[in-house]
## 1
Amino acid sequence: MNIPNHTILAIESSCDDTGVAVIKGNQVLSNLVANQEVHSRFGGVVPELASRAHQSNIIPTLSLALKDANVNIKDIDAVAYTNGPGLSGSLLVGSSFAKSWAWANDIPTITVNHMRAHILAHFLDDSPSPNFPFLCLTVSGGHTQIVRVDSPSEMEVIGTTLDDAAGEAFDKVAKLIGLPYPGGPLIDKYSKLGDCKRFIFNKSNVFKLNLSFSGFKTQVLRFLQKNLQENPDFFIDANKQNLYDFCASVQHTIISMLMDKLVLAVQQTRIDEIAIAGGVSANSGLRNALEAKAKSDDWNIYIPQLRYCTDNAAMVGIVGVFDFEDERFGNLKDVPSPRLPDLRHSV
């Protein structure tokens, strides 16, 4: 599709990463992320520490992003920023800075739904992008959704998790076995060395296109309690095979639950343009499962570049490009929200 050629400064601060990007049309001129490694010491993101770190990181990150993009302030058409969902304090830092900076430079603002940004990241750069309508499986530490996307501004969540997100399930299981935060990528790494059918976990069976991971986590907890009680050295055997097989079995179960619902969504909607988005879209098991389904069922699949899977500001910027064209501007009264309404009500 034709992408409008507006120049957008984008700010992402929904969780613990401070992202600033400059994009022109769908071309990424700069895309910087200031990470917060302090959270690994606590086994998860600490909201207060995250918001304080955003305050320290946002100005130098913006300065470097403008420098790397080789643009002047007068070249910027609008400032797009994440206004939810996310951590309240983190969103407040990013939104307050974005509105102040835009107001001081007489530049309009554009508020961005974080999940919509993940979906539209597929239109960045010159990679093949899905044709409308398409289905997008968005999977991250905070969200798991199947979204029908009819246009950049018309989206509907047709399936969602009823409790925990898939990414949270990965990280919580990793924490239970003592892996450092974030543990999801380590489970993915170790799963490649294990037998995914050695340990069997039941998949949840909830209504329609929805998902649930709380019961799965309870199964894992009971499995660990039983096996560690019988053998305290269960995960420290000589060749670590128990660890690898456990990670492979966990990953296989989570990915199977996601794919089962995605297959059902394709059957119900008759849409075979399929995309994935969000942090868990970097998972090799999910990518492999999607590629296998494309071969067996002739799906047209779209897998994002790794740099656009996790939270970043370029994905916020591409939303800004589309919304600037439609003159969907914000104002100084806009307030960030940790829990924005369903996509179909907030786009």
## 2
Amino acid sequence: MNKVYAVGIGPGGAAFMTEAARAALAASDVVCGYTVYVDLVRPLFPQKTFYAAPMMQEIERCRWALGEAEQGKTVAMVCSGDAGVYGMAGLLIQLAEEYECVEIEVVCGVTAAVSGAAVLGAPIGHDFCVISLSDLLTPWDLIEERLRCAARGDFIVCLYNPKSKKRIEHLGRACEILLEEKSPDTVCGWVKHIGRSGQESNIVALSALAGEPVDMFTTVWIGSSKTQVCGGRMVTPRGYENGGKLGCAAKP
């Protein structure tokens, strides 16, 4: 069929996968992607052919998928969350210009900013932004500038890739920058292994966030000045109550 689906599989659990994503995987001859993501869908489609590759081989992986499609196969490139949010959709579209007979279809998925927010309550009920703390492809000084702009605008900030074995100081530095504009009592939350076995979460103040057990499988939310804790859950009011607190605590 000369087609590559860029498929967002959500946070990982089968319950979070959209019907469109399932249909694309079912229609594909080959499923490829980063090893962890391939392993998440393998049990759902055991009859398929799979091709897995480690991190740092994104271009090679996309070229492999496009090459298979050029030979007449239908290929699903799986990504966690949404394929267009820090995923492979953009790279596939860029490289596809070299494969004139191959069609790319992007199949949306549920990104961590949304799926993890549901675990915490309703932290992104108002204006929010998403910033990755990974400086592998983005200079750290640019990440710092984006954090400052988000803090000045009083956005709810969702952080992807907050910490890894090599990037152990990034979250702490991000907290320092946000504290330049945000109160130490700002309500924050994190969720680890969203929708997967071993899921964990916690709600803390911004002043304590840097010391939390966060890793590369964790997504973090830093609230706005309006974010509250209601019944042990993180909520950013939309404004229907005209600014009233409705009995909720402003602090975690």
## 3
Amino acid sequence: MGQIIEQLALDKGHEIVACYNSKNPFNENTLVNADVAIEFSSPHLAVPHIQLCIDRGIPVVTGTTGWYDQYDIIKSACLMKNGALFTATNFSLGVNLFFEMSKRLAKLMNNQPYSIGIEEIHHTEKKDAPSGTAITLAECVLGESRTLNKWHLQTGDHQETSSQNHSLPIIAKRLPGVPGTHILTFDGEVDTIRLEHEAKSRLGFASGALLAAEWIYGKTGVYGMRDLLNFEN
């Protein structure tokens, strides 16, 4: 992701002032001043990375998932220091359209005889399961459902029914070379309805992250893709 974002930024005329990785880790000693930082790392690194940017007054865009149990703490720190933070579990325009369609479909399916399930497939290097995108998708469904109030990670490949314990099951698979596929299924006795998003490469994620970095520059506050895309209008 970092390499793709770097090339896209250079193609658009931006200057890359520093790149960080395992050989050149991001910390107080290596940090340089920048207009904005784009952070894609690991769940255990994201929070200190974001916090350091906030402390130094650098707007930060993060696409790392798996750290959202600390989101409220980071949000409070950002607002207290009048910083700028843009978070998204997925920066793809197509995925965010997929989220909006999923909300609409979930609302339409209330009181209909269908069970609901989510399946996500990613590359074997992805650390967290389910993916942040799958969790966001689940939250989209739960926000519209009258019967489901939580989600759970399912073990096994045979899709459970969502009627069990009022919980939405998520299947997480890891296969070589898969950028990301997410499937929302409504399964009934006489038919099945599926809404699916399949990423063909990481280019869509990188493009969205760079767009978010351009958008957040000069702003303060905590934002996400709905702010950037402005679906309401």
## 4
Amino acid sequence: MNTDSKQPHSNRQEVQEHLENNLMIDTLAGRATEGPPVWLMRQAGRYLPEYQEIRAKFPDFMSLCRNTDATTEVALQPLRRFNLDAAIVFSDILTIADSLDLGLNFVKGSGPILSHPISSPKDITNLPFSEAIERLEYVYDAVKSLRSALGKRLPIIGFSGSPWTQSCYMISGRSEALFHTAKRFAYTHPVATTALINELSSITAQYLLKQYQAGADILFVIDTWGGILSDTQFQSYSANALSDICASLKRMKCPAPVMFFSKGLTEKRIRMLKNITNLRCIGVDWTANIESLQACFPDLVFQGNLDPSILHAGPIATQQHTHYMLNKVNKNTHYIAGLGHGVLPETPIESVHAFVDQVRHYNIKDNNSN
């Protein structure tokens, strides 16, 4: 177990209280703001030519992720172009899986490939869970370096893939449209799958705590593949895991607000999440009815909702759809402007500017027609 949880957090809280831009922190805390903060999942990455220049210097993606100077530079790149309210450490949702000797590689055109995936319950018991936190030191170094580079300018978001999303890749060995391999394993071996989820939940909590201690202000759990689960499985493998992660963070006296994203979130699924300790914000995709969700859960902050594909239609279409989305936001609740998932490759930079600028010129309280 990680003994760092006993270290004092006063210095971290002091930095957060004196950030030059506190819009994200204030929104997550439920304080009144002039308008919504804005940031983007995958705001750094493949759509930026300056990222491609950095990426070309490394033989593979994980080599880039392990280079502190490179991750700092890549995380700063979108902040130079766009007026964003948060930085996010440059890393990957599969870093924990990578720490467990599963042979992770990123293959061009195929995405992540794990050469030693889980194929039986016995494989789970043989994984080096106790070594994971120490092996992820390069991520904490990336957060420290980013905090040093930013000073007190902006909050930093630290993140992890959710236990279920990590399990999908760990069992299937590669990306699948609906991860039938992982789902089949979960139905065939429910006890082993629950044990895997529990182990990953424990590691994820410690991993997020270490990112907070390194300089992250906000912690984000990304459940990319929660939407492929039935409601019963979502409760078991996504909601329960998030509850365990947040409870562990509270036990370890980590005060950082937690954000969560999953595709296909419905009112029923959000009810499974709404009472989770420390959970302040839920990110939704473009299929969600944000008006209805905000009405049902006025105490939660919602994030996102714009289809990333819209940005491929150009800046004018982006502006129009962004304005329409913001008009739907309830003026009496808190909201973080963003996309319903990450920025897609080959997204026009002008469209990202149009999205951010539209949010900046929009005051929800003045423009809401509700």
